[in-house]
Amino acid sequence: YIESCKRIKYMFPKGHAVAYVMMAVRIAYFKVYYPEAYYATYFTVRADDFDADLICKGPGAIKAKLDELYELGNKITAKDKGLITVLELSYELYARKLNFLKVDIYISEATKFTIEKEGIRPPIRALEGVGENAAKRIVEARKQG
To answer: Could you give the CA distance from residue 69 to residue 80 in angstroms, rounded to a whole number?
Structure first.
């Protein structure tokens, strides 16, 4: 690590480089030792690109969609690029023997992915056509009975 800092010769400040390296180490640590927390947090932050209907179908459906998106080559849209990243991480999650649960209006949070014993449960917002405000209203109505 110290050797790496000594080799940094370009204009990028060494302190900034150290901050990036430390953040990468933290992320890698959580990805290896606390994978459920890592994936739940990552997908909560990237919920806009998460397609719960597709991803909860399992790795076969994810792989088929990835192949379809890769076939587009340079014709791919910015939204599809974001979807590729989410699909790749979802595929990785299944490869690590973790699991997504189905969205449940009685259990799911409005906007956060939650960790349960059986897997990671997507929020209501992850459903196609359900925005953040609608998801919050569903959770509020659920609390009222």
So the answer is: 7
